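Re: [ENG-882] Designed sequences occasionally contain unexpected residues at chain ends

Forwarding the minimal case from QA. C-alpha cells:
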C-alpha cells in the first residue's frame, strides 16, 4: 500500500507560503503522494493552487486532489486548470473529484447546489473534450497544449450513481475521511461497480486518514471546525478517527491495508511542517 501525505491547504487561516516547502519536505521524506482537500467557503488555500505550488516544488511525488469539488467550477476552466497542473508536474496529477454537499461552496452564478449528478455527468464529457484538444468557446482553438493527456480521475461519493460514475469514467475510488471500520462496504461497492461495468482488473482504491502528532487537541478542534456543517454524528466519527501519534498512525496503516486499499493519504490536522518528518518516521 502506498502512503501519502496531504498538504495543509484546508487548515483554517493557514500561512499559504508554507505550501511549497511542505511539499518539498514530503518528497524528501519518501511519501508516495501529496494530497489536497478542497472547499471554497473556508479560509484556506484553493486546492488547485496548492497542487500547482507543489508541482513546482517537487519532481517525483504523485499529486492527488482528494477530493476536488468539480461541480462548483465551470467545466472548461477546471479542465484547463487541471491539465495545466498536470503538465507543470510532468504528468504526476490524479484528479480526485466529487460533487460537493455544502451549499455555501457554490459561489458561481448559475452553478448552485442542485442537480449535481446530472451536472457532473455533463462536465465529465467536457473535461474529456478539453483534454483531447477539441475547440472551446465557439472558435477554432483548443484550451490545452498538444501533448496534454486525459488526466486520470478517481471518484468520491457513496450513492449508487457515484459508483457507476467511477466505473464508467474513472481509474478508481476514494473513500470518505472516516474510520476504516465504516468503509468496507464502500470499497466492496466500488469493486462491484467496476466488475459490473466490464472493466478489467480492479479499481484503484484510496483512503484518507487525518493525523496529528504534536498538539493533538488543536488538531481535533481544527478538524471539527472544518466539518462543522456536517451532521454531528458524522463529525464526531471523523474527529474520533484522527490518528493522534505514531501508534495510532501505524494502526491506521494496518486497518486500511487489511481492507485492500492501494493508497492511504494522511491528511494533516494542523499546519505544523515538522509533522511531515514525524509521520514519515512512524509509517514509512
Amino acid at each position: 500500500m502506498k502512503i501519502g501525505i496531504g498538504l495543509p491547504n484546508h487548515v483554517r487561516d493557514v500561512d499559504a507560503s508554507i505550501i511549497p516547502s511542505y511539499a518539498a519536505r514530503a518528497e524528501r521524506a519518501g511519501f508516495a503522494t501529496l494530497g489536497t482537500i478542497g472547499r471554497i467557503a473556508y479560509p484556506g488555500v484553493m486546492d488547485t493552487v496548492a497542487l500547482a505550488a507543489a508541482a513546482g516544488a517537487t519532481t517525483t511525488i504523485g499529486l492527488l486532489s482528494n477530493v476536488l469539488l468539480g461541480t462548483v467550477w465551470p467545466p472548461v476552466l477546471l479542465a484547463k486548470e487541471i491539465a495545466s497542473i498536470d503538465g507543470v508536474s510532468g504528468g504526476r496529477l490524479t484528479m480526485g473529484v466529487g460533487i460537493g454537499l455544502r451549499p455555501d461552496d457554490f459561489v458561481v452564478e448559475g452553478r448552485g447546489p442542485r442537480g449535481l449528478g446530472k451536472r457532473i455527468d455533463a462536465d465529465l464529457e467536457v473535461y474529456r473534450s478539453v483534454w483531447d484538444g477539441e475547440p472551446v468557446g465557439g472558435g477554432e482553438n483548443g484550451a490545452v497544449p498538444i501533448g496534454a493527456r486525459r488526466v486520470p480521475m478517481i471518484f468520491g461519493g457513496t450513492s449508487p450513481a457515484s459508483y457507476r460514475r467511477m466505473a464508467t469514467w474513472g481509474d478508481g475510488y476514494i473513500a470518505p475521511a472516516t474510520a476504516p471500520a465504516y468503509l468496507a462496504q464502500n470499497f466492496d461497492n466500488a469493486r462491484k461497480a467496476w466488475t459490473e461495468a466490464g472493466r478489467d482488473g480492479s479499481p484503484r482504491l484510496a483512503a484518507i486518514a487525518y493525523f496529528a502528532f504534536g498538539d493533538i487537541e488543536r488538531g481535533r478542534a481544527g478538524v471539527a471546525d472544518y466539518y462543522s456543517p456536517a451532521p454531528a454524528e458524522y463529525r464526531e466519527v471523523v474527529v474520533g478517527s484522527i490518528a493522534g501519534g505514531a501508534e495510532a498512525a501505524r494502526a491506521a496503516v494496518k486497518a486500511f491495508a487489511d481492507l485492500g486499499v492501494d493508497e492511504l493519504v494522511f491528511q494533516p490536522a494542523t499546519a505544523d511542517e515538522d509533522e511531515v518528518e514525524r509521520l514519515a518516521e512512524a509509517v514509512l
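QA comment: On inspection the terminal residues look reasonable. The chain has a mean pLDDT of 97. Proposing we downgrade this to a documentation issue.
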